[in-house]
Amino acid sequence: MSGFKGRTLRPASLRQASKNQAMTAGLGVAVGLSAMMMMPAQALAQEPEQLATVKVQDTAIDANPNAEPGVPYKAKVSGDERHTRPLAETPQTINVLTKAQIDDSGYTDLTRILDAQPGITLGTGENGNAFGDRYVIRGQEAKSDTFVDGLRDPGMTIRESFAIEQLEITKGPNSTFAGRGSSGGAINAITKQATPFLDFANVQGTIGTDDHLRLTADVNKVVSDSFAIRANALYAKEDVPDRAPAYRKREGAAISAYFTPTDAFEATLDYYGMRAKDNPDVGGYLVAGKPAPNVPSYVQKEDFLESDVNTFTARLKYRFSDNVRLTSLTRYGSADNGYVISGGRSGTTGANNPGGVYPTTTLSAHQGWQEVRYFANQENLFVNTNLLGLDHELIFSLEYTDNAVKNGVYGVTNTGAFNCITGTGATLNNFCLTGANGALVAGGNSLLKRSIVKGTWDTDWQIKTISASVMDTVDLTDKLTVFAGLRYDTFDFTLDVQNTTTLVKASYPYSDDLWNGHLGVTYKLRDGVIVYATYASAADINGGESDVGTSSGYGGVVIYNGSIAGAKPERSQSFEVGAKWNVFDETLLLTGSVFQVTKSDVMEGANYDTIGTFNSGKNRVTGFEVGATGALTDKLTVQAGATYMESEVLASATPANVGKSLANFAKSSGVVQLKYQATDSFYFGGAVKYEDKRYGGQPDTAAPFDAITGAYTRPVPSYTVLDLFASYRVNPNFEVRLNVSNVTDEAYYLAVYRGGFFLYQGDARATRLTLNYDF
User: Fold this and answer.
1) Can you name the residues that pair with 623 across neighbouring β-strands?
2) I need a surface site. Which of 176, 412, 466, 562 has the fewest CB within 10 A?
3) Which SS3 state, helix, strand or coil, does residue 193 take?
4) What is the pLDDT of residues 323-380, one digit of tens each?
5) Average of pLDDT values for 494-507?
6) What are phi and psi of 9, to 5 degrees?
7) Residues 82-92: pLDDT tens digits?
8) How far apart are CA 437 and CA 709, in angstroms?
9) Is the peptide bond before 245 cis (omega within 30 degrees of 0)?
10) CA–CA separation, 79 vs 431, rounded Å?
11) Residue 769 burial by CB count (10 A; 0-12/13-18/19+): exposed, middle or buried?
12) Neighbours of 369 (CB within 10 A)
């Protein structure tokens, strides 16, 4: 990570840090403490009024308040202050990616960042649903379990890293923190926020192959002792590597203002805006169970994938005393998404085709739009108290959310002229994208000449939820610690469905209550070493996925005997046993765990049909995970992890599914990213990521299986990808970094649609040169 060198640390800020040490979970406080730790002890011993301005020339100051000082890849604490203990003492697997690690990787979109992490696979947008990102954690769907600063982010949007300080992946059911869903885990993005402790400005410009251009700015200004403002900006565009004319374009802004009028009160107000506009290339497709070779980019000129996001967040903190404080989070957000994309599939020209009979590629159109509006308020009361002779860290939480997602359709008409004959026809009747030589035909990227008109809505998904929870962390002895949490959610759900032709409407309302808990125990074997055991539960609802309406097989509403009501919530339970070892003066964290996640009462739908069965499915995932994050030596830094898992369908309304592996599930995956600081000015490194083969299909059930051949029919091959990077700091303010991703130009695939005609392709080799300047 680029550091902020030569920055002025202000005495007033240091005075404020002394006042706020009791609120160490606050954003700016940890930055101030880190800054003070870098100062000589004699300076700290002085009265604040006598402190001189200090210039830090040789030590980079990390703007991330949760980072381990001096260890760029290692986070010390979670950005969610409800985790009251350091990550090395938390009885759960939480993988944390710091901004430094993300920057070195060269990845910017969350899809690529998370795809490199163990235990996570990607899914396709089913039926061509291209809204944003779809993640699968420990075999369980998690596309609706993405959070920003602890609040659910319900829009199925394209997510970017320019405003992210730290990315946290919690493994295992997490409903005590997250509420409904989170069967396999949750993703929480910690954003960059204004800090009153130092002025800094950083600008980066990146150029590269495939017409890559990326510009970012990150500026923090301390206006006074009690007020600071921070702004981040992004502009980026590129052709999809080796898949032009497909392209990606991103524009973003994030503004944060910090105000602390008294020692007891602080407020942070944020705005986040993101505009993404792609001409999206899906990639390849399957032929006879294998990726079709040498598929050209068949994206059509009129195709698009757009996401327009605006969120406003207020964070208010008040300290009543040294032992009682309140954090209030309020957010209003909107996301407008839309897409028309092409899916490719194998075809063959007919006997009457003017060019003869040959294999070719034909296209299908997939489209939809989405309007997301959401409001959330979360109140967290932190109380440190002594009960029955034991010190307790209590958290009482109340939360209200109102999420509404309206989905609609586009009218898509192909006005281009047919260019081939398929089937038994005698006249031109189809669009063939490739000729007899397998190459894209002339004008193939604008062959269809699509006319696109935005149509009416077809589903209106709404859920209002009130939640209450209590958590407690208590040291029973100097070695034994217990964490416990209990959460209650009550919700009102409505799905309105409209036939887009007849405009006939139907409504499916219901309500229910959810109870979930979490219990963890840690035992300190010696300083820096703990063993732990944890149990957690999660629950999800009928129709919990907002983007699929009545597609019951993909998390949409399941109707049974004419009713949506009557189903029990889907239930998940997780058991995990592990160990964490914080070594080398807490600069390296080693972790290991074994786990089992069982999901029962699963709603089983059928493809895109509304009708399904209530609570008839059950599946189980077992496995182990190991990790290492931090400094191996004073020059070598690592972020590494590996997971091995087995999955099995235990019960199903379709007997043939029992005993099969889950869809979108990779047994093994891993990543190792190493960084070597060769000199004070130069470092280099690389990352190797591996993911085992997996098979496409519906969530929460078996991948499609051919009983005759004894093989799964929608495979995604395993892959190994190598990335390299190097950085040279020309002077304290100027740094140059080179990234080469997919060095071997591996042809690899991220996910497959059940039908086989979406085989999402990973990026080809790309080279990027970044100029980084700190003011």
Assistant:
1) 595, 645
2) 562
3) coil
4) 999 999 999 999 999 999 998 889 999 999 999 999 999 988 889 999 999 999 999 9
5) 93
6) -95, 130
7) 999 999 999 99
8) 32
9) yes
10) 52
11) middle
12) 19
pLDDT exceeding 90 applies to what percent of the chain? 74
Predicted TM-score (pTM) of this structure: 0.89
pLDDT confidence of 588, banded at 50, 70, 90? very high
Q: Distance between CA 575 and CA 67 in Å, rounded? A: 29
Three-class SS of residue 655? helix
Beta bridge partners, 635, equal none
Q: How far apart are CA 309 and CA 158, in angstroms?
A: 9
Q: Six-digit token pair at 738?
A: 């080179």
649 token code pair: 């369908």
Using DSSP bridges, classify how beta strands 146-148 and 185-191 pair: parallel, antiparallel or unpaired: parallel
- Residue 346 in 3-state DSSP? strand
Determine contact, residues 232/218, Cβ cutoff 8 Å: yes
The two three-digit tokens of residue 282, written as one number: 């899906």
Token readout for 11 is 């005495």
Task: Give residue 76's pLDDT.
Answer: 94
Q: What percent of the chain has pLDDT over 70?
A: 91
Report which listed range, 137-141, 210-214, 563-567, is most confident. 210-214
Distance CA 631, CA 380 (A): 34
Is residue 631 within 8 Å of 588, Cβ to Cβ?
yes
* Token pair belonging to 32: 């101030």
Residue that the structure tokens 């998940």 belong to:
572
For residue 328, give both structure tokens: 């209030």
Taking residue 541's Cβ as centre, other Cβ atoms within 10 Å add up to 24
Which pair of tokens denotes residue 384?
Answer: 């440190």
Residue 727: CB atoms within 10 A of its CB come to 22
